[in-house]
């Protein structure tokens, strides 16, 4: 195993790559947030889709980001306090950060390429309600740019990526879907509750006219798929009897057994 020494502390090359990858994903996400999306032509017969009232978000980003990033960390930390499993702690953090990083990047790329106007785009474009024949926006450029990022819903994708991970992580720890966890409804409730929270966040985006229903469906699918893929990259399937342990724990156990076997063989030949 290749070892890298930083500030007197040894790290595996694999761990350093994992950290670097997440930093790159975060930087790309922040850069894409400032990019200008594709300007899609709006036809007169579809203008009604974008003339909904402009309202404040029911779940603003100041509430979304703490929920999305802190809740998984709290759940992982709580599991660590109970089980004292350092491998699971690190693998869970790597898993959720990878899911959120990929989700942010993919969601933003699709937003920029599609450039679908939000349901309240008309009022973002013409705050005074006076539309010109060229459909040239007169509103705040930043508000207009954000108004062209309706598809898919970032709130929905991040909510399902984050709370979807929490649901999978809790189901794994509680053996909700393995043989030992069957017929225990409280365990199923712990799995469904985070999904319900994600669903409420997603649905709120249609209530405040910030997204069309297709946007939140697509966002939910993207977030759910990415978090499941990342979870399965680090953890066994939920119906496995070992679903509570990450793959890294099995790898380390095999390495320790190989070391013991090698030592035994050496002793035999002495």
Automatic annotation (TrEMBL):
CDD domains named among the record's database cross-references: PAP2_containing_1_like
Listed transmembrane segments: 7-30, 63-81, 93-114, 157-174, 186-204, 216-235
Cellular localization per UniProt: Membrane
Membrane topology of this protein: Multi-pass membrane protein
GO molecular function annotations of the record: phosphatidate phosphatase activity
A biological-process GO annotation: phospholipid metabolic process
Keywords: Membrane, Transmembrane, Transmembrane helix
Record has Membrane as a keyword: yes
Every Phosphatidic acid phosphatase type 2/haloperoxidase domain range: 93-231
SMART domains documented for this protein: acidPPc
Chief place where the protein resides: membrane
GO CC list: membrane
Keyword Oxidoreductase: no
PANTHER family in UniProt: LIPID PHOSPHATE PHOSPHATASE, RE23632P
UniProt family annotation: Belongs to the PA-phosphatase related phosphoesterase family.
Protein name: Phosphatidic acid phosphatase type 2/haloperoxidase domain-containing protein
Species of provenance: Vespula pensylvanica
């Amino acid at each position: 195993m290749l070892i890298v020494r930083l500030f007197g502390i040894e790290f595996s090359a694999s761990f350093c790559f994992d950290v670097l990858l997440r930093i790159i994903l975060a930087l790309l996400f922040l850069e894409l947030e400032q990019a200008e999306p594709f300007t899609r032509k709006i036809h007169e017969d579809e203008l009604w889709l974008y003339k909904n009232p402009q309202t404040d978000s029911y779940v603003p980003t100041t509430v979304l980001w703490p929920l999305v990033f802190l809740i998984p960390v709290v759940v992982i930390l709580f599991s660590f306090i109970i089980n004292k499993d350092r491998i699971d702690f690190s693998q869970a953090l790597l898993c959720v950060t990878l899911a959120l990083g990929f989700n942010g990047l993919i969601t933003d790329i699709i937003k920029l390429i599609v450039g679908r106007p939000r349901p309240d785009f008309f009022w973002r474009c013409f705050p005074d309600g006076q539309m010109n024949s060229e459909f040239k926006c007169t509103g705040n450029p930043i508000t207009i740019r954000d108004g062209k990022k309706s598809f898919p819903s970032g709130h929905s994708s991040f909510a399902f990526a984050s709370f979807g991970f929490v649901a999978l992580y809790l189901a794994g720890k509680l053996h909700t879907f393995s043989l030992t966890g069957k017929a225990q409804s409280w365990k199923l409730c712990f799995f469904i509750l985070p999904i319900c929270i994600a669903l409420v966040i997603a649905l709120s985006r249609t209530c405040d006219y910030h997204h069309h229903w297709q946007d939140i469906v697509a966002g939910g699918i993207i977030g759910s798929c990415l978090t499941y893929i990342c979870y399965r990259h680090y953890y066994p399937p939920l119906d496995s009897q070992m679903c509570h342990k990450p793959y890294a724990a099995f790898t380390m156990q095999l390495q320790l057994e190989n070391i013991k076997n090698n030592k035994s063989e050496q002793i035999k030949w002495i």
